[in-house]
Write a structure and sequence with these properties.
single chain, about 100 residues, alpha+beta, four-stranded antiparallel beta sheet, 2 helices, about 40% helix, CRR_secretory_protein
């Protein structure tokens, strides 16, 4: 799934998405709840928000593999898009330019 709107500089933006989600993948698989959220400041007025999550029936290593595979699928669906999500049977990743997770 993806946001239908494009970003202005897709090459730079895609790298930032990958950076944020890779960091969240590393946090999620090491967390007993297999869940992590975070953000990355893009400029003085905008942030990129992300989420990485696995089902808890996976091992930590399998969670990491699942998340990394999901992240690698983002260019196929969400290249240069303002938001995107890859949902698998055992994990999912999501990013948006707005805060979508509420504590």
């Amino acid at each position: 799934m993806w946001n239908v709107e494009d970003v202005e500089n897709p090459t730079s933006f895609n790298l930032k998405v990958k950076d944020l989600l890779s960091r969240l993948s590393n946090k999620a698989y090491a967390n007993p709840k297999f869940y992590a959220t975070g953000d990355l400041k893009l400029d003085s007025s905008s942030k990129l928000y992300g989420l990485a999550q696995c089902t808890r029936d996976l091992s930590g290593l399998d969670c990491k593999k699942c998340l990394d595979t999901a992240i690698s699928e983002l260019p196929n669906c969400c290249d240069g898009k303002r938001g995107g999500r890859v949902v698998g049977g055992s994990c999912n990743v999501r990013y948006e330019l707005y805060h979508f997770v509420h504590a």
